[in-house]
Write a structure and sequence with these properties.
Elements lengths: L6 E4 L4 E3 L2 E4 L5 E3 L2 H4 L13 E9 L3 E5 L8 E5 L17 E6 L11 E5 L9 H4 L12 E9 L3 E7 L2 E6 L18 E8 L6 E4 L2 H4 L18 E9 L5 E5 L11 E4 L18 E10 L4 E5 L2 H4 L14 E10 L2 E6 L3 E6 L20 E10 L4 E5 L2 H4 L17 E9 L5 E4 L5 E4 L1 H4 L10 E10 L4 E6 L26 E13 L2 E11 L7 E7 L23 E11 L2 E5 L2 H9 L14 E10 L3 E6 L6 E5 L18 E10 L4 E5 L16 H19 L13 E9 L3 E6 L4 E6 L13 E10 L4 E7 L1 H13 L13 E9 L3 E6 L8 E5 L21 E10 L2 E6 L2 H9 L6 H13 L1 H4 L5 E10 L5 E9 L3 E6 L5 H6 L3 H9 L3 E16 L20 E11 L2 H5 L5 H4 L10 E6 L7 E7 L2 E6 L8 E2 L10 E2 L7 E14 L4 E9 L15 E8 L2 E7 L4 E4 L15
Parallel strand pairs: 7-9, 17-19, 22-24, 37-39, 42-44, 47-49, 52-54, 57-61
Antiparallel strand pairs: 1-4, 2-3, 5-6, 5-8, 6-7, 8-9, 10-11, 10-13, 11-12, 13-14, 15-16, 15-18, 16-17, 18-19, 20-21, 20-23, 21-22, 23-24, 25-26, 25-28, 26-27, 28-29, 30-31, 30-33, 31-32, 33-34, 35-36, 35-38, 36-37, 38-39, 40-41, 40-43, 41-42, 43-44, 45-46, 45-48, 46-47, 48-49, 50-51, 50-53, ...
Protein name: S1 motif domain-containing protein
GO cellular component, one term: small-subunit processome
Organism: Parascaris univalens
């Protein structure tokens, strides 16, 4: 609100053409420096009562020395402390500070000394009357106060006389609001202040508003009767101008005489603006404040319905952290320019557009698209909002940090990496410009992070005065693979219970850079002695002992307020307890003595824990159960250099481990995880007991999840017999619907009888599995009428009725579904009723079954099963041979190095017999394909027995192809030197050129010219795949599982870049047997860019890199026959853009120059739709003779 005089240095000179800014500045450049503003003044020009800018030169005991910046003399002003305004304190004045100064007590003779008296309260007196008698316009300066006599009133304002014939005009909005109704009554003299003047010009702007005339009172201008932007007020119509704009008077209870603040609304901000009778003078309306006019002391208001419904109307009332919707106005290289409510400018930086950083945002976003955003902060310099549209920040339910407050200490929140310090520390950003620092040692736990990555942090300390804050990583599961995470132990003591009850309060998503995790928010009831109810969260991996999560997502999954019967505390980190509801862990703690510290450990002791992280060098880290927070490295004992895929565990998995070594002094110990060494038989148990227990806990956890789903859906128990309705019959599956809850499901081929089905018929089914929380059901269909007829015929011949499957029943079953955590079988004996019996798929917690599992039982296999126990109404059993299988697996003696060498030799001798087509094998990832002809589109594998394998990029998992731009590089970064499971789909051969190796220890007849001889050899290659549907396919057909042989015109295929763009053609390949080309004009504008230095020149080629994946459409197929092998080599002609056969007039097309003719002179272009276009010199430029040179 402080008033100051300024001088315009340069005017706004921005030019706009076709909606694009061409150059210049959108704002005028001004200065308030006294030496510039007062440059035209001399000592003789100073008058008694003249107001001008002055800067503080020094602060003395009784006042302040003021410098006016006059170049003609060394003139200073002395400002007594009694002449300072209320908002200025001598102790806070600094050198160079500019104030509005009034000259006073000058000698009437006109002599000016070296020091003159001044005052910083200009409104106390007017310009000297003796000077007014000789007044002319060049004497005036902005801020000078005079007494004006009204001469004539008009509809727009009042003409006044200042003295000596100098006249001026006061606009209506610059008059006091109480006098604007009838300007003809303004007959008395009125005080005015000069707002604008120019030397040697008749331009003069005056203001008579009392709040403006009070120059030294900023409090008169920095508030508008306590009304803020966004407030709703009542106004009375004062006047409607000829443009339809309306001037209002405020209706306030505390201002009976009328307020000095008025309101103004343009026609575009009025509801029903075209109705003349709606805004008659004197009518009252409710409006909302959307902006201020400081000099006119007016509120800019609107009464539109959509503005009343807005959360904010300007930058002033923007609340950081608030959710809003923004519309994209422009797409730039550094982010998105958007509009909020079609009037507030905002910007989304490129690192805040999405959690996944895009290189070309124009491919994913378009103008006019509406995005959900949160307000990060307000950019006051550029008058815009800074927003974020990252889903992790939008969907976070954690506390939002908007200010430096001591109440935030201990809070778990979500921030983003704002900057990286040279020492390795991170600057974490929050809302409202709040920032926090993370020490380098703590930041190292996250590994390599990039700017903009979101991280869940825990606030450690806050310094409100210095506005500083320290944070640490909150989620221990999101640490890097090179840092060991350690927590503190939970409360120790004999009275501390093993388990507690918990209540679900919600869910949250944890994001740390590229790592993500889902957590279940809980209230754990520890009891009064331990502090009552404690808030914490549990990772989805700690919910159950299953390998695959019981639920696909926690969003909209469990009901708030659902009870978890038992949870156990694992450790404590920063005041946050880590809990788990794993039934196997809780059962182990109840069966075995609790471990409180290192003193309870001994070498050879069998312990239970959960895998917390995978270390790049030390293997795995396991946290022991029981609340001791003891963490130790764990590994599998392997003597072979080849890694066994079964010797792997996953994060969050329950494991049994054996203590292999202890160092009491250093407080360290280590564990081994080999299942044969981590097993103990209790009384009455056999080698299958752990498998049965794991399966029982899996079914119990599923039943709990099904009973606590949002929406209260009542699902049948596993193995239940239900009636379903056929929705759609397919060749390999039946789409079904369970009518009780209108839930969809399916039955795989082999799980329903082979016959003709009709839509809408009712079938009898057995429930095998359910996907939560989507409630997608998997069924086994059996023909009840046919079976009952067959059984009745047998009954007449003397057979008994069908028996119900009970405990200890031995029945013949057929495998219907094989999962990582269980195997579902269905009875097929005629003497028993149809029922589902579940078998364990693993017999030890440390075993990780592959996906899909391969081993002792496959879908469709028939075997004998013994029912061992019941879990509710679900049957659990063991297959014939399971006991022998588990005994051989868990009681096997560890192999020595000699045994492994012998086995490796036997495997080498029979390499050709081990690997067969259409079978799943473990394979070691060697690296990118460098055998024969090097290719960035394939991966080299090593199959059992040293067989060479090739995994082409087109055979990678579908999710990797969709989410990664360079899927092969991403796959190699994660899987190099590791083992994976692949299926062999075919065998081929490659040609390699090698040089003969000469044994110089033996006589040789090699001649000198033999050195240049080249030997060509053919190497057998196993073509492999990792596609899920191919891995699960049971049919062994080359036409089904092999590489695609036939392509249809218009088909959309996935291709990989072989070589960069050369000669206007991009070489790609869809598979090792199918190549392709994309001509430059078929790449589209998204892959070609304009030359920034010359927009009229040719388009610049995009930087395609080998291995990049693209989606292209087939426009042609050519077949070339190899003369030597009589083998056809396919080459596809592809396009990235959609092309039409017809080119319409005035249509903008892209073409590639293919020929230039001299007579007649023309340029021939090839278009994307394979048509040709010709351009003549007259279509290039006006200079026909030099057209082709241009």
């Amino acid at each position: 609100g402080q008033m100051i005089a300024y001088k315009v240095l340069s005017a706004a000179n921005a030019t706009v053409s076709r909606g694009k800014k061409q150059g210049g500045s959108r704002r005028a450049v001004v200065t308030c420096c006294p030496s510039v503003v007062n440059a035209h003044l001399m000592a003789s020009s100073l008058l008694n009562g003249l107001v001008l800018n002055g800067s503080v030169e020094s602060v003395e005991d009784k006042g302040v020395v003021i410098n006016f910046g006059l170049q003609s003399c060394e003139l200073r002003g002395f400002l007594p402390s009694t002449a300072l305004p209320q908002f200025v304190n001598m102790e806070t004045l600094i050198h160079g500070q500019v104030l509005l100064i009034r000259i006073q007590h000058l000698s009437p003779i006109g002599k000016v000394g070296r020091v003159i008296n001044v005052s910083a309260i200009p409104e106390v007196e007017n310009l000297d009357e003796r000077i007014v008698e000789k007044l002319h316009l060049n004497m005036l300066m902005p801020g000078t106060i005079l007494l004006a006599e009204p001469i004539q009133s008009t509809a727009k304002g009042v003409y006044v006389e200042l003295g000596n014939g100098v006249k001026g005009f006061i606009r209506k909005q610059h008059l006091p609001p109480r006098q604007r109704r009838d300007l003809s009554k303004l007959i008395r003299s009125i005080r005015v202040v000069v707002m604008f003047c120019e030397q040697n010009s008749r331009m003069l702007v005056l203001s008579a508003h009392p709040d403006i005339v009070a120059l030294s009172k900023p409090q008169k201008r920095n508030t508008f009767e306590g009304i803020a932007i966004g407030d709703k007020v009542l106004c009375e119509v004062n006047e409607v101008d000829r443009f339809g704009n309306i001037h209002f008077d405020l209706i306030l209870d505390n201002a009976p005489k009328g307020s000095l603040v008025s309101a103004y609304a343009t026609k575009s901000h009025l509801q029903s603006a075209n109705e003349r009778d709606a805004y008659k003078p004197g009518s009252v309306h409710q409006v909302r404040v959307i902006s201020y006019r400081l000099v006119e002391r007016q509120l800019v208001v609107s009464n539109k319905r959509e503005i009343f419904a807005q959360k904010m109307v300007s930058l002033v009332d923007a609340v950081p952290g608030e959710k809003i919707r923004a519309k994209i106005e422009s797409i730039k290289a550094n982010g998105l320019g958007v509009k909020v409510y079609d009037r507030i400018s905002a910007f989304i930086p490129i690192v805040h557009i999405a959690d996944k950083q895009f290189t070309r945002i124009e491919k994913h976003y378009s103008k006019g698209q509406v995005l959900d955003c949160r307000i990060l902060e307000v950019d006051a310099l550029k008058r815009r909002l800074i927003l974020t549209s990252k889903p992790s920040l939008l969907n976070s339910s954690l506390k939002l940090i908007k200010e430096y407050s001591a109440e935030n200490v201990g809070a778990v929140t979500l921030g983003y990496v704002r900057a990286k310090h040279e020492n390795g520390g991170l600057l974490i950003g929050f809302y409202g410009g709040v920032r926090a620092y993370m020490f380098p040692k703590e930041a190292a736990r996250l590994g390599e992070v990039k700017l903009g990555y979101t991280i869940q942090v825990n606030v450690q300390s806050v310094d409100v005065e210095k506005q500083r804050m320290l944070v640490t990583v909150a989620d221990p599961s999101l640490t890097a693979d090179t840092v060991v995470l350690r927590s503190s132990a939970f409360m120790e003591g004999k009275d501390v219970p093993l388990c507690y009850s918990a209540t679900i309060t919600g869910n949250s998503q944890v994001v740390s850079g590229a790592k993500r995790g889902q957590r279940l928010d809980l209230n754990v009831h520890l009891g009064k002695k331990l502090g009552g109810t404690v808030q914490t969260s549990m990772a989805v991996e700690l919910l159950s002992d299953t390998l695959d999560p019981l639920v696909d997502t926690l969003a909209d999954c469990f009901k708030v307020g659902s009870k978890i019967p038992q949870v156990t505390v694992l450790s404590e980190k920063g005041g946050i307890i880590k809990v788990s509801s794993k039934r196997f862990v809780i059962d182990w703690l109840q069966r075995h003595p609790r471990i409180h510290s290192m003193d309870d450990l001994s070498k050879g002791l069998l312990v239970c824990g959960t895998v917390t992280q995978r270390h790049a060098e030390m293997g795995y880290f396991v946290e022991l159960a029981g609340g001791s927070a003891l963490v130790a490295p764990a590994r599998f004992i392997v003597y072979s250099a080849e890694e066994d895929p079964q010797n792997e565990v996953q994060i969050g998995q329950t494991v049994l481990a054996r203590v292999s070594s202890i160092d009491i002094e250093r407080k360290r110990f280590s564990l081994i995880l080999n299942p044969p060494l981590c097993y103990e038989l209790d009384d009455g148990e056999n080698w299958c007991s752990l498998g049965l227990r794991l399966l029982e806990y899996t079914i119990a956890d599923w039943e709990w999840c099904a009973a606590n789903l949002i929406g209260g859906k009542k699902l049948p128990s596993l193995g239940a017999s239900v009636d379903v309705t056929l929705v759609l019959p397919l060749n390999d599956a039946l789409t079904l619907e369970w009518s009780d809850e209108k839930l969809r499901g399916y039955a795989r081929k082999g799980n329903f009888p082979e016959r003709k089905y009709t839509r809408g018929e009712t079938l009898k089914a057995l429930l095998l599995d359910v996907v939560l929380p989507s409630c997608e059901l998997e069924f086994y269909i059996f023909d009840e009428e046919k079976e009952s007829t067959s059984h009745s015929a047998k009954t007449k011949k003397g057979h008994t009725k069908r028996k119900k499957v009970e405990l200890c029943s031995e029945v013949e079953v057929c495998v219907a579904a094989v999962k990582r955590d269980f195997i579902a079988t269905v009875t097929v004996e005629d003497s028993f009723e149809r029922a589902v019996i579940y078998l364990p798929s693993r017999f030890h917690p440390n075993i990780v079954t592959p996906s899909p599992p391969t081993g002792r039982l496959e879908c469709g296999a028939v075997c004998k099963v013994m029912v061992k126990q019941l879990c509710g109404s679900t049957l659990i059993g063991l297959a014939e041979g399971d006991l022998a299988f588990a005994t051989a697996l868990l009681s096997a003696k560890m192999k020595t190095k000699q045994d492994l060498k012998k086995k490796k030799k036997r495997d080498t001798d029979s390499t050709s017999k081990r690997v067969k087509p259409f079978m799943v094998y473990p394979a070691k990832v060697v690296g990118p394909w460098k055998r024969g002809q090097e290719s960035a589109c394939a991966i080299e594998l090593e199959l059992p027995g040293g067989i060479l394998g090739r995994l082409h990029g087109s055979e990678l998992d579908e999710s990797l192809l969709e989410n990664e731009r360079y899927p092969i590089g991403a796959f190699l970064r994660e899987k190099t030197a590791k083992s994976i499971y692949v299926k062999v789909i075919s065998f081929g051969s490659i040609k390699e050129i090698t040089s003969p190796k000469v044994d110089l220890s033996k006589p040789t007849k090699k001649r000198s010219n033999d050195d240049n001889r080249i030997i060509t050899s053919f190497v057998r290659v196993a073509e492999c795949t990792m596609r899920k549907w191919k891995m699960a396919e049971e049919k062994k057909k080359q036409s089904l599982l092999g590489y695609q042989q036939h392509y249809v015109h218009g088909e959309l295929v996935t291709v990989f870049v072989k070589k960069p763009l050369i000669g206007g053609i991009l070489q790609v390949e869809a598979s090792p047997i199918t190549a392709g080309v994309i001509q430059k004009q078929s790449l589209g504008e998204g892959n070609l860019t304009l030359n920034p230095t010359d927009t009229d020149s040719a388009l610049i080629d995009a930087a395609f890199e080998p291995g990049e994946v693209m989606k292209a459409r087939v426009v042609g197929v050519s077949t070339a026959k190899n003369r030597r092998r009589s083998r056809q080599q396919k080459c596809l002609e592809l396009t990235v853009v959609g092309s039409s056969n017809e080119v319409k007039p005035d249509e903008r097309v892209m073409g590639r120059v293919i020929n230039i003719t001299q007579s007649p002179t023309s340029v021939v272009f090839a278009l994307a739709n394979s048509q040709r276009a010709v351009i003549t010199p007259t279509g290039v430029s006006d200079r026909y003779g030099h057209a082709l040179e241009d």
